[in-house]
Design brief:
The chain is built from 23 helices and 17 strands. It is of the alpha+beta class and 753 residues long. The protein has 5 domains: 151 residues, no CATH class; 93 residues, Sandwich (Immunoglobulin-like); 95 residues, Immunoglobulin-like; 187 residues, no CATH class; 146 residues, no CATH class. Strand 5 and strand 6 form a beta hairpin.
Amino acid sequence: MGAREDSVSAIARLRRRAFWLLWAEDFCAALAPGCFICVAYLVAALFGFGNGWAFVCVLLLALAAFGFGLARLKRPGDQKIDRRIESASGLKHRPFADLDDAPETGEEMALALWRAHQMRVERMIAGARTGTPAPRAAARDRFALRGFLFLLLLTGVVIAGPLAPARLAGAFALPDWPFAGPVVTVWITPPDYVQAPPLLLSPEQKTISVLMGSRVSVIVDGAANPPAALLDGATLGYSALDETSHRADAVISASGVLAVGPWWHRLGWWQIDAAPPGAPVIRLTGVGVSKGNTVGMHWNVADKFGLASFGATFYPVGGAQGLVLKFPLHTDVGDGSGAVDLTDSPYAGVPVGLVLTATNLGGVSASVDRGDKLTLPGLALTDPTALALAGLRQHLALQPADGLNTANGLHALAAAPPSAITPSADVQMAALATAIALRQTGAQAAVDRMLALEKEIEAGPDFAGEKALAASNQALISALERGLHGQAADAGALQKLLQAMEQALAQHLATAQPTAPNQAGQKMDMSALDRLARKIAADEAAGRTAQAAQELQQLQQVLQALQSAKPMTAAEAAKAAAADAAAQQIAQMTKGEAAVLDQTHKGSATPAEQGALLSQLNATMQNLSQAGVPVPGLGDAGAAMRSAEGALGQQDNAGAEDNENAAITALQKAAAALAAAQKGRMSISQGSEDMPGQSQEENGINGVPDEQSDPNFSFGGTNPAREIQQQIIKDDATPGVPPPAHDYYHRLLNQAP
């Protein structure tokens, strides 16, 4: 019984396979006419005969053929299934019929024989097969048109060549809708940093390249219900402009297709290729440490749209966890240069690396890392406590995670500072050590506070005065800078700022430059600074911004010079006094030598006059030597005077004139050297003399500044009258001066103070 059940199950599976096989053959036969029509149109398209309307006609014809064929499709019957199995397996005498037949008699012997026969037939059929699909194309295509169509297809591919994609795209595109639809206007607005006008899209454009961040706008006019607009598969939301006008906006963040309208009636279709803006290109062309801790850099930055930020980052070489120092630089593209003051850097003596980072207006960044190492000298400290604090600050900057050891070092330093410090600095060190140990402050904030303590300890008792002066100077400069942008301070506010600056300056100078005994009760005259500040405000109010900016720069330099003033030692004061006296004596000797030169030219000079000037020069040189002030040029002047004296004694006026001119040149060199030395020290004017280039006589009524004024003005500079006198002497000593001009110069020298 079990064997017969297996045979019956095998026959059932065989019939199911035959059923699906016959159904697939009939289905393919039903689709064959429609497929023939589609392939024929494909061939026509390759030959260039396709268009939108032909595609619609072929599509309708193919659909009709498919519908007609599928409508005639019937389910295979049982007899057809059995005949397919018998045919594929080569079974004769239709054995499947024996399974359904029955004997005419009901005798038991006959029934037994019939069952035995059926079982034998079932075992035979169980091993049958269904065969492979047979399309029977020859029966339906007697003239073999399918082969001819295949040849035409190959020929069309060869003939079309590279034009095949374009021909197929045009042949299988739906035609323009025959009825007027709503009007669609689409444009793309580039990002603001591009500074380019919007791009209006036309129907002929199919591919558009844009920058990421561009904005696409779609306006549909003439429809109460606007057609759907999709960007990269996402539906755009419309906002109503009026009853028949709607607008949709979106930001393009990726490439995709912008489609307006349903697939059967496209009002617009564009492929949008979005790309990010290119990164800036940075080249570091030069870098070096100059003027102590100032790092000078030269670079070139190229970017199509401009920079949003540009900066330099310094990091300790080899210290992966060390704090970095960041400094902004100007964002101009092209060749550029800049300097960064790293005086406050905690990495004194430690090699540091440099990275330049630029971010363009599109938000794309690029960096260049200089592999060379820069070594910085750091702050110039002399106080032992400040030096010890600088070591702790460097340790914390290099190892920000090691705050506990830094805190212990600060506690020890506050308990036993190696030098005398103020109680305020001592308390601040102890408090900072506690904050670091309890992790109440970060490494960067702790490093900044330690830097302020170093400066306070190094400055000594005048720290508060310097700080107050810096704050008052910055407040005054900021108020005047706002005036350059149309936000000028009123007279009352400017007066208060000037008074605060003068009070802070007086307090600072009282410590930095103690008053000499013979100057007790004198007060520094601030009228020159007052006039300059008020003139800046007046120029800003009158719209003379360029002139005001130049004057503001001059005021900044003066205030910075005063803020940086340091007290002079007794030796420095003695040298300064000797240099000032020598400057006056050299001016008198230069004037006297010019007079002797004039008399020599007239033939009335005597050796005694030249000898008197030589004696005065020797006395001046001796005083300067005792004070330790070297002045180049005086020795040459003395030698020239001795030669001139000898020439006058021999009645050699021509030789005397040459030596006298040489003496004047040497004296001018000495005067210039003394003037340069005076600029290097602080000297406070006690009078009310105007600053060079700032007096009313020099400026004139219209307020135009003197073009020859020195923008690097410092108090205590050379007397302008003396500078004019020296210029007259120099012009008079020029070879080839005619006698009338020489007489004119001589009269000017006699009238000079």
